[in-house]
Amino acid sequence: MASWELLDEKGESELHKSRLLNVEEKPFKRITKRLSSISAIVSSAIQSDPAAQNGQTTSSAQLQEDLTFDFAAFDSSIARFQFLHDANVRERQRYEADKQRILAECQAARENNARLREQLEDAKATLARRKKFDELAEKILSNRLLRPREDQFAALEKLEEECKELERESETYSGTWKERRDQFNRIMEEGMLLRRQIRDEKEEVDRREGMNEGGEDEAEEQRGGEPSATGTPRPDGDGTSNETPQPTISVDAPTPSVSSPRPDRLQQLSAEGTGSRAASRASTREPSRTRLREGSGSETGEDVDMEDTRHEEGEEEDGEDKSGAGNGEKMEVDN
Fold first, then answer.
1. Tens-place pLDDT, residues 28-85
2. Which intervals of the chain are annotated as region Disordered (predicted)?
3. Nearest to 335 by CA among 239, 249, 269, 223
């Protein structure tokens, strides 16, 4: 079927010539011809005599009837033209509606084609993925080293049970860790309290030792100021008589030799021993106090300093006891 196209000017002219213009313009030509004949009759009647007018009366009536018929035919022709025009308008409107409908259908068809094209592309991509998956599945399933599906399901169930067990253990571990953390915090608090108590007790012991050492130093100073009565003979009685005391000789005591020190020499040795003991105590106490001051800033080294101080104090006391015992033995021997 050939497509319909608009005609050019030459084609339109040929179309107008080929139409039935003669048929359509026939009523108009008849009216024109009738009017021209009427004008000729009127002009001839004016020029003719009155006798000829009686013969033309019948012809005028016939002319009037012919004019009426001609105008009726022209009126019908005009009505037909109007009907054709109205029909053409309606047809053009119908053609326009059909045109819009066809254009809408074409647009919908284009959109549908685009959508179908997209779906086709998606289907092609899906098909390619499925083919790739089939190839991979074929490679996997063709491997004879793989275990059956039932064994795999059993292994998966076992793994799930192990995961649940691990989750329960993690919950238990979290509770245990919380309890241990609380215990550790309590232990740390108790340790802090214990360190404070030890520090307080150590300060109290140092204070008491300082007081005792101060009293001993005062007593030694007082003893050092008084005359030593080590070699002075004492009376046998209550000391109220004015008699000169006589030295008592012990049978068991050894006889003093020439090399034995005199009583004034014994007093000087005793004073020197006392001063050396006091100096040793003071020198030992000063480092211990220095260590205590240094250890008061750091809590971690307090226990070690206390143990060292106590150990040194114990060594000093042992040394003093030993020196005192040696001096006593020497004095007894000299006496």
1. 888 888 878 777 777 776 666 555 555 555 677 777 888 888 888 888 888 888 998 9
2. 198-335
3. 249
- DSSP letter at 259 equals T
Whole-angstrom CA distances from 79 to 28, 31, 68, 74 are 13, 16, 16, 9
**Six token digits for residue 295:** 């250890």
Nearest to 295 by CA among 204, 185, 203, 194: 203
How many CA atoms within 13 Å lie on the side-chain side of 90? 6
The domain spans of the chain are 14-45+60-142, 150-206
Exposure of 299 in the CB half-sphere (CA atoms within 13 A): 10
Is the pTM higher than 0.70? no
Tokens 């105008």 belong to which residue? 71
